[in-house]
Design brief:
It is a single chain. A hairpin with a 2-residue loop joins β10 and β11. With about 700 residues, this protein is of the alpha+beta class. The protein contains 25 helices and 18 strands.
């Protein structure tokens, strides 16, 4: 448990301060001396901090893992019960409720601090006494401004705001050291210790993380415990082999690297343990980041912009300086980091948020600061963990929330993740051969889908040696099944429309984006009655506060097995983009797939160089990195059943096109494969009446 050594010095420095502030908070919890309307708020916040202090006591005595299952469950519920379900309506973590009870002047501020305390619960479970102490000291500092005050004696709002500002400003070195250390330093082995040393058959281990443990986490852990060692190993092999192949196919030297970050959902520890052993054979040590399903997505959404209370240019520069200082001190660790290996989960009910009137929101100036900060932080990552030397892999599995047929869907997903990539490689090459003849590709929707979009394709100088599309198989993006390119922005114009899509955890209804010369020109959806709210929803969460974004990717998903699974189990609205993008044509707004790697030539299996690696935005990198990279990339897929046709338009005006749903409704992938193998599949079109002659028509 090396992480204990990392915290030892700072914990010793915090011990005396912790004892003093803890005693003070106990007094506040017992009898808050403030104006009446604030008493319950300060009592509840003090109580939450006292619970965290009690957990630290268990950690310090090394008894936290010795609690009974019932004690662990009750402790976990005690931290989150006020934001679960209907309880959130009367929680001080709810901005509308906080403002109603605490008043307009201080409601937002006190609500944001309360939410911060909630988000830092994990510090006590990690034994991070300094983090626990400083957030308790901030609480006392804020409380002191309200103590013994009547309404006429209330503190100035600006004073409380400054308390928050200087707290986050002054302690930014601590915060960024903690977060970046978890990325690149294997000595930060809190999660590694749980994964590798806990008795995974005893579900008490789940409660050592210090995050909300719901039914998904408990059930998936129990489910994986029923699987054989061989089944678990096969899952781990798919995951780690995809990572290794990602380096191999891009010509990157994995042998130069020492660490890999495993990002995994809590409950998957058996698979992660097997993966760690696989990575050890590649001479890679793990860093880890564990995640859990949210106890309340509305809470997360309500507090996503709380930094607006203290965000300014000086604070952003301080945060960037803190990042820079850590990377400078740990250059060797950063250079040895190979990139993330990610396990995602899917199956949660699509979430459409409510826009709370009292939630904190960035102003226009702060939105631009966020874009600037994201850009500069992205450059810094690329400077110290070089993009041309790192890779990643990502794989997804369902969670029990997906429904009664969870075990069947899980088994189908395992099969999906292990499809024969060699077969798809052959099929996809035939698609690419036709796409490479295109001047433009025209994509249209059918019935209610309004998609009518022309994508300008990179022009090849030597088609015998060059290609515009990458033949993407199961390496970094598992499962197999897409071909993609970086569109030429100029003359890429038209409307992209999807009836319903789930992006980065948020649901969008009737999402419509219009492009002009490859740049987002306008956008809307129908999630809210107010059109201004719809536009803000997309700008904040898809455009990431940018005024516009380029189309960074055009792709065609080829995985009919995934498409069939989604339809058979009626889970299309619950698929992660990782799988959904393989089930139809998709488009990404933001950076290209070759961000920071445009000058590193890679090749398809047929030996052709992939030349469509940049666009007119990323081409600015040599003059202005700030203008070249957006540090975001969001894929949007048109489902096959909303698609009319994809048409290749050549320079001479000739075309090829296909009505995809006609073919897919047959679900005869095996026969399609047979046609490919025997050479009977032609790159041509046939009328629907000849569907039995050409089982799966390609472009």
């Amino acid at each position: 448990m090396l992480y204990k050594e990392l915290y030892k010095e700072s914990n010793e420095l915090a011990e005396e301060r912790f004892a003093l502030v803890r005693e003070r908070i106990a007094e506040i919890e017992e009898k808050p001396e403030t104006e009446e309307k604030y008493k319950e708020y300060f009592r509840q916040t003090a109580q939450l901090l006292q619970k965290q202090a009690a957990v630290y006591d268990l950690w310090a005595d090394d008894t936290i893992q010795k609690r009974s299952l019932k004690e662990a469950e009750e402790c976990n519920l005690g931290f989150y019960e006020d934001i679960l379900g209907a309880s959130y309506q009367t929680s001080y973590a709810n901005p509308d409720y906080a403002v109603k009870i605490l008043g307009e002047e201080f409601g937002q501020l006190l609500c944001a601090y309360f939410a911060y305390v909630r988000r830092e619960i994990g510090a006590a479970f990690r034994g991070d006494l300094m983090q626990l102490t400083i957030q308790m000291e901030l609480f006392v500092e804020i409380y002191n401004r309200f103590e013994n005050g009547e309404e006429k004696d209330a503190p100035e709002k600006s004073a409380v705001q400054q308390d928050l500002y200087w707290f986050f400003h002054d302690y930014s070195e601590i915060f960024y050291e903690r977060s970046l250390r978890r990325l690149i330093d294997p000595a930060e082995d809190f999660e590694t210790d749980i994964v590798m040393n806990a008795d995974l058959t005893d579900l008490r281990y789940l409660y050592r993380y210090g995050v909300y443990i719901g039914e998904n986490e408990k059930q998936i852990a129990a489910f994986l415990n029923k699987m054989t060692d061989e089944e678990i190993q096969a899952m781990a092999d798919t995951y780690t082999e995809g990572y290794r192949i990602g380096f191999e196919v891009t010509g990157k030297d994995l042998g130069k690297k020492q660490t890999v970050q495993l990002r995994y959902p809590i409950g998957f520890e058996r698979m992660v343990r097997a993966a760690v052993h696989n990575f050890e054979k590649m001479n890679l040590k793990p860093t880890m980041l564990a995640t859990a399903t949210s106890p309340n997505k509305q809470f997360d959404y309500d507090h996503r912009e709380d930094r607006a209370l203290y965000l300014d240019k000086a604070y952003v520069e301080r945060c960037l300086e803190a990042r820079k200082n850590y990377f400078e001190e740990e250059k060797k660790l950063a250079a040895g980091h190979a990139g993330p290996a990610v396990i995602e989960v899917f199956g949660e009910e699509p979430f459409s948020p409510e826009n709370k009137e009292c939630a904190v929101k960035y102003n226009e100036k702060q939105q631009k600061l966020c874009v600037y900060e994201m850009n500069m932080a992205g450059q810094m990552i690329n400077e110290y963990i070089k993009g041309e030397e790192r890779s990643f892999t990502i794989i997804a599995y369902p969670i029990p929330e997906i429904g009664e047929r969870f075990e069947e869907i899980f088994a189908e997903t395992v099969k999906l993740n292990t499809l024969d990539y060699k077969l798809y490689q052959t099929i996809q090459q035939k698609i690419i051969d036709v796409l490479d003849t295109a001047d433009q590709v025209h994509i249209t929707g059918k019935e209610k889908n309004k998609t009518d979009l022309y994508v300008n394709i990179w022009k090849l100088k030597d088609p015998s040696k060059e290609t515009a599309f990458e033949n993407c198989v199961a390496d970094v993006n598992i499962p197999v099944g897409e071909v993609f390119t970086s569109p030429v922005l100029e003359k890429t114009t038209g409307t992209l429309f999807v009836g319903q899509v789930y992006l980065n955890g948020l649901n969008y209804e009737n999402l419509e984006i219009r492009f002009k010369d490859g740049m987002v020109e306008s956008y809307t959806c129908t999630n809210f009655k107010d059109e201004a709210e719809n536009k803000k929803y997309i700008r904040d969460n898809v455009l990431k506060h940018h005024d516009t974004l380029p189309m960074g990717e055009f792709a065609i998903g080829t995985n009919t097995t995934a498409y069939r699974m989604a339809r058979d189990y009626q889970i299309a609205d619950k698929l992660p983009i990782l799988i959904a993008e393989k089930t139809g044509p998709h488009f990404a707004v933001g950076d290209t797939c070759y961000s920071h790697e445009e000058d590193n030539i890679s090749y398809n299996p047929d030996g052709k160089a992939i030349v469509a690696r940049e666009n007119s935005v990323s081409a600015q990198r040599k003059e202005s990195i700030e203008k070249a990279y957006l540090n975001c990339h969001t894929d949007i897929t048109i489902p096959y059943d909303e698609l009319d046709k994809i048409t290749v338009i050549r320079k001479d005006g000739s075309t090829d096109h296909c009505r995809w749903q006609i073919c897919l409704s047959r679900n005869r992938a095996a026969e399609w494969a047979a046609f490919i193998k025997t050479g009977l599949l032609k790159i041509s079109w046939s009328p629907a009446s000849e569907i039995n002659k050409i089982i799966y028509k390609i472009i």
